[in-house]
Amino acid sequence: MIEKITEKNVWDALSESELPIILYGMGNGADMIIDKMAEIGLKPDGIFASDEFVRGHSFRGYRVMKYSEVCERYDDFVIVMCFAVHDEATLKKVKAMSEEHTLYAPNVPIVDDGVFTREFIIEHDEEFDRAYSLLADDFSRKSYIDILNFKVSGKVNYLFGCQKEKNEIYSEYLHLNDSEIFMDLGAYDGDTVREFLDAVSSYRKIIAVEADAKNYQKLVNNTNETKNITTYNLAAWDKKEILHFEKKKGRNSKLSKSGAVEVQADSVDNILNGEEITVLKMDIEGSEEKALDGAKGTITKFLPKLYVCAYHRNSDMYALPLKINEIYSGYRFHFCHHPYIPAWESNFYCTVD
Fold it and tell me: What are the strands, taking DSSP E only, across the chain?
């Protein structure tokens, strides 16, 4: 696989740059990038934010500037993007910036397993090759290589070159019909349920599973008029067990050995207890491999269409397709990225012809 990765590590590129390095954005992403830069002897030359967020405040000792102010101060500079974005307006803004200046969006980890590097690909070269060999179409193969090159380099042009909208996936890859039984692991506030409902004119049943108590309440509120839906306030896992999560706001409930919040977990096989599903979606913050183990019986019996997110752990790009193939070797694999910076919403879609 490494022979297909043409880019150098973003951190090496930043070290070699002679231009000022300006961070775009604040918050946890900026904290991680500033700390990583410090490890390699680098320090940002400034920070800017979108105009609507600039109110004369500071971050980590830097006065937060507007983009126009940075352009006035420097003839040229390197932009390092420090936040995630998927709305169309901001994506267009970022693309325009990337055409004016060198722009990197380092793929900082969601789960604490280190940054993604060329060295990681070399270490797992054989597994990456096996995963790549499972892909069934040219677009998926191109997308897979593009995402790996992005994860190494932080160059956003790779993301813009391999994306599809969700509605295309439902029609082109998953071929949803009007008799689906949809199981949504990591249902959040019902966002994927809404996507599913937009993609079909009818269905048999929806089973939505969400671990976070606040998100679960949003899910219940947002689906209270949805017909034939069953919801569970559970974490998807390989067995029935109490798990601990960090107390954290937002959609990304993070698993932690010493987390403050206890959450009941259970497996797909236990939840369904032999009932059929035709579509299984997993977006569960790095627990996908465990959940696949807990769905072996369901997968081998019913061969549901699979929609599995592959961006939480560095190993997801090879471990998840290899796990699915181990459970059932007859799946046809597709891979695609959806409009998002960084490489979040990069997913495997599996069907049986």
Answer: 21-24, 46-49, 58-59, 62-66, 78-81, 102-104, 181-185, 205-209, 229-232, 235-236, 241-245, 261-266, 279-282, 305-309, 332-337, 346-351
Q: Which two tokens stand for residue 213?
A: 């108590």
Report the distance separating Cα 59 and Cα 38, nearest Å.
16
* Number of DSSP helices (H) and strands (E) in the chain, helices first: 15, 16
Structure letter (DSSP) for residue 2: G
Contact 283, 276 (CB under 8 A): no
CA distances from 212 to 67, 208, 239 (A): 37, 12, 18
Q: In angstroms, rounded to a whole number, what is the distance separating the alpha carbons of residues 71 and 216?
A: 44
Quick one: pLDDT at residue 54?
85
Going by C-beta distance under 8 Å and a sequence separation of 6 or more, which residues neighbour residue 239? 265, 266, 267, 270, 294
The reported pTM is 0.93
Q: What is the dihedral of CA 271, 275, 278, 281, to 10 degrees?
A: 0
- pLDDT for 145 equals 98
Residue 228 has pLDDT above 90, yes or no: yes
Q: Are the beta carbons of 333 and 135 closer than 8 angstroms? A: yes
pLDDT digits (tens, 9 = 90+) for 33-84: 999 999 999 999 999 998 888 877 899 999 999 999 999 999 999 999 999 9
Provide CB contacts within 8 A for 292, sequence distance 6+. 282, 299, 308, 320, 323, 324, 327
> With 60 as the cut, is the pLDDT of residue 259 above it?
no
